[in-house]
Amino acid sequence: MTQLPDQTDKKLGLVIDLDTCVGCHACVIACKGWNTENYGAPLSDIDAYGGDPQGSFLNRVHSFEVQPCEGAAQTVHFPKSCLHCEDAPCVTVCPTGASYKRSEDGIVLVNEDACIGCGLCAWACPYGARELDQAAGVMKKCTLCVDRIYNENLPEEDQVPACVRTCPSGARHFGDFSDPDSNVSRLVAERGGMDLMPEQGTRPVNKYLPPRPKDKMRDLEPTATELTSVTEGPKGFLGWLDKALEAI
Amino acid sequence: MAPREPVLDTSPVVSDEIRKTTCYMCACRCGINVHLKDGKVAYIEGNRDHPVNKGVLCAKGSSGIMQVNAPSRLRAPMKRTGPRGSGEFQEIGWDEALEIATGWLEPLRKSSPEKLAFFTGRDQSQSFTSFWAQNFGTPNYAAHGGFCSVNMATAGIYTMGGAFWEFGQPDWDRTKLFMIFGVAEDHDSNPIKMGLGKLKGNGGKVIGVNPIRSGYNAIADEWVGITPGTDGLFILSLVHVLLKTGKVDLTYLSRFTNAPCLLNEDPTSPEHGLLLRDADGKTLVIDRTTGKPTPFDAKGVRPDLAAQCELDGYTHRTVFQHMAERYLSDDYRPEAVADRCGVSAGRIRAIAAEVARVAFEEAFELDRSWTDFRGERHEKMTGRPVSFHAMRGISAHSNGFQTCRALHVLQIILGTVEVPGGFRFKPPYPKPVEAHPTPHCHSKPDCPLDGPHLGFVRGPEDLALNEDGSPARIDKAFTWENPMSAHGLMHMVISNAHAGDPYKIDTLFLYMANMAWNSSMNTRGVMDMLTDKDENGDYVIPKIIYSDAYSSEMVAYADLILPDATYLERHDCISLLDRPICEADAAADAIRWPVIEPDRDVRGFQSVLVDLGSRLGLPGFVNEDGSAKYEDYADYIVNHQRRPGVGPLAGFRGDGTKSGRGEINPDQLDRYIENGGFFIEHVPEEASFYKPWNEAYQNWAVKLGFYDKPQPYLFQLYVEPLRRFQLAAEGHGERQPPEHLRAQIKDKMDPFPIWYPPLEDAFADEKDYPVHALTQRPMAMYHSWGSQNAWLRQIHGHNPLYVSSKIWTENGFQDGDWAKVTSIHGEITVPVAHMVALNENTVWTWNAIGKRKGAWALEETAPETTKGFLLNHLIHELLPPKGDGLRWSNSDPITGQAAWFDLRVKVEKADRQAESQPMFKGQRSPVDPGPEIVRQKVRS
Amino acid sequence: MHPAPSVIVFTVLSGLGFGYLAFLGLGLPTVTGWSAFFCFALGYAMAIGGLVASTFHLGNPQRALKAFSQWQTSWLSREAWLSVGALVFMGLYGFCAVFLGKLIAPLGLIGAALSVATVFATAMIYTQLATIPRWNHWLTPLHLVSLSLAGGAVLALQWRAAFMLLVIAGVVQILHWVLGDRRFAERGHTIETATGLGDIGKVRMFEPPHTGTNYLLKEMVYVVGRKHAQKLRVIAFIGMIVLPVAIVLITPASPYSAGAAILCFLVGTFASRWLFFAEAEHVVGLYYGKRTERSQASNAS
Ligand SMILES: Nc1nc2c(c(=O)[nH]1)N[C@H]1C(S)=C(S)[C@@H](COP(=O)(O)OP(=O)(O)OC[C@H]3O[C@@H](n4cnc5c(=O)[nH]c(N)nc54)[C@H](O)[C@@H]3O)O[C@H]1N2
Ligand SMILES: Nc1nc2c(c(=O)[nH]1)N[C@H]1C(S)=C(S)[C@@H](COP(=O)(O)OP(=O)(O)OC[C@H]3O[C@@H](n4cnc5c(=O)[nH]c(N)nc54)[C@H](O)[C@@H]3O)O[C@H]1N2
Ligand code: SF4
Ligand code: SF4
Ligand code: SF4
Ligand code: SF4
Ligand code: SF4
Ligand SMILES: [Mo]
Questions:
Q1: Residue B538 CB neighbours (<10 A)
Q2: How many domains is chain A partitioned into structurally?
Q3: ipTM (interface pTM)
Q4: Stretch B685-704: mean pLDDT, rounded?
Q5: Binding site membership of A119 for ligand 5 (Cβ less than 6 Å)
Q6: What is the residue range of A172's domain?
Q7: Which of A179, B95, B190, B428 has its C-alpha lying 20 to 30 A from B4's C-alpha?
Q8: At A46, which CATH number?
Q9: Does A41 fall in a domain?
Q10: Span from the CA of B184 to the centroid of ligand 2 (angstroms)
């Protein structure tokens, strides 16, 4: 099982738009809510009301600052969950076969019944996408909401991951990357979707859309043509106004 | 070898049942689907059909399950047994609790109803609570708007009949350039995010004006890291450039605003600065066709912006000419304001040019005809795809009213309000000032008040003053200190009551406001006032009743606790009479209903008020025979009528098919529940823009009962009521301000937007206190009460003070360091962290993360208490004494809006601390501590 | 990485145990009867004790048997098989030695090979992790295997072999440290590649995703002070290499001198192993802004 499938029928995953994410953490909590109630053991919270609360989450939003050579620093909110890598090292290291990549759609999952909680897969993941649940002792990770996306008890439009459904700014997109015409493939092509830590060779399925260029407005001199004054004429502003009113 | 994969159940049953109601974790009021399993809340998601959130849900909304299960939930009514502030209580039954309350309130009503001060904090049922207070007869009622964003609301209403947030929204589908001032999250949380996503998807651009670049500002294409408190100057400089370059919408100004109205400009006239009116009180313009003074709304009139005329020996010129003169002044040149605002002159010009370019060169037309209030038919609707939004960043300053005014004037001269692509009102707005009540304050024993408490003053005659000129209200709202305090001044109630100024009260009745903590300026001072005793050993504020749902800091300071049910356990009504959930294209209202039953001895507060109302025999709550008129709040929601046919809910009236107006429908709540908890009625297409002047809209508004007859009006570039106060200050009229306030009124109540430095600047020397200190709302936390939520508190468990690179380097800070932060009012010692994308003279922190030990069922070691902190300790409701024997309020002098963001501080490196300072003695928790481990799952 | 005691005890003890068993399997020394019993018991105690310790860090040890299933891809699974194989073969070999007084060389040789292979497999569990550049290097198996054999040689009273192996282990250890310190930077993992934001400019963490801690931070973002680490390196090297070498050089081979040498060796190895984990920087730290200063610092040094 810990062998990776040679290829998967579909390549399901997420596109995350860093130009649109406002860092609201809605996806973090929607994910927690859905996944604690559904797939596998509940996502526990240790010392929940105490001095050192620590719970399992499958999706977390980091915030970074980027300082370009010129101009103001930028803030980038950065959600991160499992990228469902094509060459998923977390799968091949797993001694029990609990970790696997589905040949059907490429989703990387943990079969909790087989997981011994050795933590090795989390060590193997460059992205911090796996968290060992402290109460259940099993490995937790994004399931790509496998129990939503095919769930016939949900209306069709709701057959998307919980985080995608809830994201208020529409910064998360779900789809099949193996189809070049899918929404996600097109977004990646149009906006230069990128891989995280490509040098790790994991070939992530999830892609990130980089923030669009910022602070590009150039300062204007008073003499700029856009700023031709109308008050400079002989009769000043009123003169201009009179003329302008004629025209209406 | 083909790997064998486990067989998964990819179609698990999601829940036994979905119940649709309304979220409560903030004032956005999104629709939610509550999934129940075994009768318990299993999962909460957004309701796709709901007009507000269309399916999305924020972090708070999604974690509602942890709110409903929070160990901090109060369990039963309580009476205080220990000293105030200790948190020592005894649980009692409802009968006893209600008897105590009645025993306290009944004598007050019979003798001096003003001795009850009823303030309702973050209340979503103000039309009901104010109705109760009005029937009780006390003039002392308000909700929290006075310390929140009354500047924004008031400036908007006076200028254009509505403001941002729940009053209106950008035309997200069409806007191309969106400029957002001073917003971290706002009430319209999800719609703003959805809108930003949409706008970006359409290739639109965002300009964020904010000293801090996070959240919405992080995704802005252009960031203007302005110096706090200077937005007014920056905006007026934009106005200067636009006027100078003639980039204003003259057609719009002449037709839809008071720009062409004639202004008496003779300083010798008693009417100096007032608008010329005809015998019917209609403002007059000069018609370009006839050259004659004509009422603004006359059929076919072509108002002349350049007109001048002599009448009765006084010269009159148009508002527009006065305005142009004012803002073309060199004082507003970009060069003149750049340093002060921390924005380069070139950038100000570039922004002005870009705004003008998009407004005028990307203008477009919609093929929709409409008829204006003058009867003129227009075949098209002209779109100007520039829109603006702003909130507390400009509003919570002592110059906030005028700054908000300036922003409205900016959008109006561009012609972008209520046009496609611009800013659009949400029904029941727009509504001119004239459609709002004036404040009422005359109380008599055993009698309802003479009218609604809150309103919009038109001039000095509407102030809430007694015969002798003393303030009629405990919070001194609607007095010369802050004449336009349309939302009251909740932040002044406790200090005034403590000082007995203007008079002493007997009972302070609070609902949903954490006044002993994050809701107050000068938190420690407020805690002291609440516990202070007089020479007889009695509390200076004799009795305090409080309704909360959770074990908050404020609970510890009350004598009687009326525990509320949580939002999934009670009825609520989000009413069009109040602050509804409408969209620009639709009127909508909603309910909450008990989707689960409480497992504790708690009651919905509104139902408790209904009960108290009938026990006290308040008119409006009892029938003629003295029997209770309503069984509970649900009964009130259905059966109460404000005006014939108009009740709390507009939907499914009469036989269930009537909207807006209609007879009582006993099945109304069921119909709401069937419909997903809300009701929506779309604005007809023809009525969807130009609402203040659009005949079709006005008729629709009347049909729905927003008002009883059409009332088109002009946008007020020049706000005459302000001028009326100035006239009084200049010595005209009977009601005269006290001498010490004359200058303030003359200077600050300018009918054209002005800018003046935040008032605290006069006390906090720039050299001693060079740094601005701000707070922001974290998107994943709601004020104080997110911290009891086991999921959310992991995201924001404590709050460092973020400091700019300049301050970081100057102090040689390193990760893990602490700083002493001092203002003219106080001092705190707190952890610091570095932020680069921040105005260099600014520090900030997340709001309301710090907690008092013992509150919220958190352990005493919780990071919220040990490392978390409030900036409120550095703020005060009063400015320091300035030697005139008076304490001036730390508020906007026009509206009384608390000036949270005027705060200036100095920052110095401190030794690393074990706990942030100041640290308060813990309160006893009236509830049991929470479990060590949470495994939230109802059933798999 | 979090220096979990269970994992440190596991790798040190089972490493030493298998190293020792390897020597026994090679018939160095040749022991039979009671003395064999004690020798094998010691080897088994350490090897099995270590393996048992390793289960303490499992979330669900009761399912440990499942760990045998994935030998095709998983080094942990291979280690499981190899260790069982080693224990079985060495057990048979030992049984014969103790009870039959016979040394069946092929059994011993296979057992020895499997013992070394077990240590190698253990090492490969760490070596294979591209996420931890310090480990992800051919020196890592050499490091663990050389130490295992050096310790085994000391216990086996093979003074000459012990000397050579200790010297090799010492050299490898120093290389592992020196090269390891540069490894993270050499690999080119930066907060910029982690976030993909490098095209815009220099990236720094502004806010972590949560103010408290989590599994990842506790497990993978362990940070050890530079000074502290240097001190421990000295202690490790002296205890693990210098003192045992001195003992081997100065004293004749005897159970007592071996005991003394192995005590020093264990102290040193525990320190070394603690550092092996504590100093191992996982790339996930980049997302928490935790790796930048350190990798720069080690660049500079
Ligand atoms: N430094 C600083 N201070 C500020 C601000 C700032 O920007 N900076 N902002 C100010 C503003 S705008 C505001 S609005 C205030 C907000 O401050 P508060 O109005 O104090 O807001 P909350 O913390 O939401 O507290 C409301 C109380 O309502 C209780 N509550 C929650 N749900 C229910 C319920 O269902 N029923 C009842 N009865 N009670 C409930 C909570 O437990 C809590 O005790 O803070 C102000 N304080
Ligand atoms: N998640 C969440 N949502 C909430 C709340 C909450 O507690 N949590 N509270 C609700 C309430 S009661 C309110 S009142 C609203 C308030 O919502 P917001 O208006 O967004 O209020 P704040 O979070 O106080 O943010 C004020 C913003 O103004 C900026 N600012 C401060 N001074 C200046 C200035 O001089 N100029 C400019 N341009 N910007 C400035 C600050 O940097 C900050 O970004 O949010 C509501 N929504
Ligand atoms: S919900 Fe959307 S906007 Fe919010 S943090 Fe997640 S991705 Fe970003
Ligand atoms: S992101 Fe991590 S957990 Fe997910 S597939 Fe890739 S390596 Fe595995
Ligand atoms: S923790 Fe579980 S899933 Fe991960 S490697 Fe170990 S057994 Fe496999
Ligand atoms: S796809 Fe599902 S499991 Fe994965 S992050 Fe989103 S909500 Fe969580
Ligand atoms: S924005 Fe969030 S908290 Fe506010 S009502 Fe909507 S879902 Fe609830
Ligand atoms: Mo507010």
A1: 9
A2: 1
A3: 0.96
A4: 96
A5: yes
A6: 12-209
A7: A179
A8: 3.30.70.20
A9: yes
A10: 5
